[in-house]
């Protein structure tokens, strides 16, 4: 469609005059608008095949929240030189860093927070999607299906729990069955194994809690479940084991470009040089691109809220169920804004309900609100009326890094020779990362080789990361033997999740040097149970202080400055 016609249509639909310009890569929009939903809808209206959209339409009266940056300034990285700098410690950056260590390269990963997995990779559903909802050829489909296929192998190597227990997409109308037949055909074409339609009897037997709603279901047996933060941590640890350096509390603040290449990278810890830069900055990926004068796409943040239920809750489906398209929502299925989520049995045995998908103007707005909680519960209570609000133990939001084109951008920049973008990694990024990280590492190696560098395989590369001990998963005999060897494994610190002192000490001994309360929580789940740390947090604070040889007042919950104790008033 021609751009002037879209402009006219936008004027008619939204009452907004948009200024539009174009180059060979992108369509650039500017102007003002009174509602954020309209800003996003207008951006989408201008999507054209083969072009990106850079949407600078301002929301009237809105001041963008300042970016959260580390409260640290030193020269630790000043003057250092690297073969590759990876920006961002989410699953994308950590997986790319790990795959890069298959080569003999000096790899640095910088992450602005005090730990990895602090962006979307730490706040999502951990569903390893089968890919049944993706209709068209795109990078999400390519890497989603390829990632799913290798998930078991990757998790085995990295010592992370993974369960491939399938997903039931429930439908409430016989007419949808016709639509489901198309989905099965498409899934087969896309190489997704085993997808089939279940009739009412079959789904009622497989998952009795939905028998009143479901007239049938699509069953995708290749859907799996992983702890997304534990996998991200495992990737980072294995990268370090193989020679990469992870610099936490380190934000990229600017870049200098010379002769069409990033010549210097400025951080809060000094200025460094790198032969190649990989942009894995999540919701800030377009800002990083902009620092290199290469902003040809824009990210619009899309928040998703999930509700967590007590693992002991009654009447919750044992299998993962997702609400399929209803007759009303059929046209939106596969539109890309959400994969639908559902009622999920996580890799750790909890129940998650959600997420929703809400367009928001601020990239780090992970607040939760009553509307979202009601929306996710309301939606899934239709399928499963036995869900109870009283079983909620926590809720959280994560922010997806959506592009207007609704696909990943995984490519070397056509303008800045030594810059690779891994951007727009919204769902199914957790699923796809094991696959695309291999291609990104190969892309970097190919570029470095093209500059005359000898890029050799790292013969010492060790793909394995030892599986951390989880005493809860051991048999009584195994646990007894463990406690005999180290009595700390017999002292339970987190009662809800049954986490022992031994496991906490082990977690504090992590290769990334993370010594925070939430760092312990992400590694061993202490504080993730029904009481949400009410009982164990003071104990963990004390353990961290003892292990690190500092005062409890120096212990932080997470980022620098998040100290939780201001002084000692009595023994904890
Ligand atoms: C609610 C929700 C549910 C989801 N469910 C699923 C699911 O079930 N399955 C699935 O496959 N996917 C799911 N996703 C998508 C998935 O979470 C993301 O695709 C994936 O986590 C993106 O990883 P990332 O590393 O690209 O980005 P992030 O995890 O956001 O990491 C980017 C990192 O870059 C850092 N950074 C940013 N700017 C700078 C800077 N200037 N300097 C240094 N560091 C910087 C950030 O601090 C952050 O840690 C879900 C997402 C959400 C929000």
Overall description:
With 572 residues, the protein is of the alpha+beta class. Among the domains are: 164-223 and 300-397, D-Amino Acid Oxidase, Chain A, domain 2 (2-Layer Sandwich), CATH 3.30.9; 471-554, Arc Repressor Mutant, subunit A (Orthogonal Bundle). It is 30% helix and 23% strand. The chain has 14 helices and 25 strands. It has helices at residues 3-14, 36-45, 91-100, 139-158, 174-189, 200-206, 228-241, 285-291, 370-383, 429-450, 476-485, 501-508, 517-524, 537-548, and strands at 19-22, 26-33, 52-59, 81-87, 107-110, 127-128, 162-163, 167-171, 196-199, 216-220, 224-226, 245-247, 252-258, 261-267, 270-279, 299-309, 321-323, 342-345, 351-354, 358-359, 392-403, 409-412, 419-423, 492-494, 499-500. Strands 4, 5, 12, 13, 14, 15, 22 and 23 form an 8-stranded mixed sheet that branches. Strands 16, 18, 19, 20 and 21 form a 5-stranded antiparallel sheet that branches. A hairpin with a 2-residue loop joins strand 13 (252-258) and strand 14 (261-267). Helix 4 packs across helix 10 (429-450). The chain is globular. The chain starts with a helix and ends in a 24-residue tail after the last helix. Residues 87-93, 110-113, 118-121, 123-127, 129, 251-252, 280-282, 284, 304, 306, 355, 398-400, 425-431 line the site of flavin-adenine dinucleotide.
């Amino acid at each position: 469609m021609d751009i002037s016609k879209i402009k006219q249509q936008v004027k008619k639909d939204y009452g907004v005059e948009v200024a539009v310009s174009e180059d060979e890569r992108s369509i650039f929009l500017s102007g003002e608008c009174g509602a954020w939903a309209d800003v996003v809808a207008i951006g989408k209206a201008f999507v054209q095949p083969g072009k990106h959209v850079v949407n600078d339409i301002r929301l009237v009266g809105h001041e963008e929240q300042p970016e959260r940056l580390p409260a640290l300034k030193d020269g630790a990285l000043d003057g250092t030189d690297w073969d590759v700098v990876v920006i961002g410690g989410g699953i994308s950056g950590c997986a790319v860093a790990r795959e890069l260590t298959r080569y003999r390269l000096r790899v640095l990963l910088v992450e602005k927070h005090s730990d990895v997995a602090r962006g979307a990779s730490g706040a999502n559903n951990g569903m390893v999607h089968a890919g049944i909802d993706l209709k068209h050829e795109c990078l999400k489909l390519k890497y989603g299906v390829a990632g799913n296929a290798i998930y078991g192998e990757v998790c085995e190597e990295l010592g992370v729990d993974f369960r491939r227990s399938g997903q039931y997409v429930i439908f409430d109308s016989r007419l949808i069955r016709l639509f489901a037949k198309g989905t099965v055909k498409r899934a087969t074409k896309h190489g997704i194994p085993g997808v089939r339609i279940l009739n009412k009897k079959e789904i009622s037997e497989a998952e009795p809690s939905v028998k009143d709603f479901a007239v049938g279901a699509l069953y995708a047996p290749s859907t799996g479940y992983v702890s997304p933060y534990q996998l991200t941590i495992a990737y980072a640890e294995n990268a370090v084991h193989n020679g990469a350096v992870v610099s936490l509390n380190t934000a990229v603040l600017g870049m200098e470009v010379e002769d069409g290449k990033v010549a210097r990278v400025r951080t809060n810890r000094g200025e460094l040089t790198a032969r190649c830069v990989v942009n894995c900055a999540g919701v800030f990926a377009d800002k990083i691109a902009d620092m290199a004068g290469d902003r040809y796409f824009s990210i619009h943040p899309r928040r998703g809220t999930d509700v967590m239920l007590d693992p002991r809750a009654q009447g919750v489906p044992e299998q993962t169920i997702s609400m399929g398209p209803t007759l009303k929502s059929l046209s939106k299925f596969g539109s890309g804004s959400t994969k639908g989520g559902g009622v999920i049995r996580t890799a750790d045995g909890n129940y998650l309900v959600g997420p929703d998908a809400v367009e928001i103007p601020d990239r780090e707005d992970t607040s939760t609100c009553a509307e979202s909680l009601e929306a996710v519960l309301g939606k899934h209570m239709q399928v499963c009326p036995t869900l109870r609000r009283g079983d909620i133990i926590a809720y959280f939001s994560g922010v997806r890094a959506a592009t207007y084109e609704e696909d990943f951008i995984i490519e070397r920049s056509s303008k800045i020779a030594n810059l690779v973008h891994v951007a727009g990694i919204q769902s199914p990024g957790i699923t796809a990362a094991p696959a695309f990280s291999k291609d990104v590492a190969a892309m970097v190696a190919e570029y470095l080789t093209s500059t005359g560098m000898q890029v050799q395989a790292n013969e010492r590369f060790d793909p394995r990361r030892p599986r951390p001990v989880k005493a809860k998963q051991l048999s009584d005999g195994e646990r007894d033997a463990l406690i005999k060897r180290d009595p700390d494994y017999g002292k339970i610190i987190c009662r809800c999740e049954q986490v022992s002192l031994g496991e906490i000490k082990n977690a504090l001994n992590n290769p990334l040097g993370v010594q925070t309360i939430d760092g312990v929580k992400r590694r061993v789940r202490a504080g993730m149970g029904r009481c949400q740390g009410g009982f164990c947090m003071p104990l963990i604070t004390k353990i961290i202080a003892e292990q690190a040889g500092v005062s409890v007042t120096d212990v932080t919950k997470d980022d620098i400055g998040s100290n939780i104790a201001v002084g000692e008033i009595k023994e904890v």
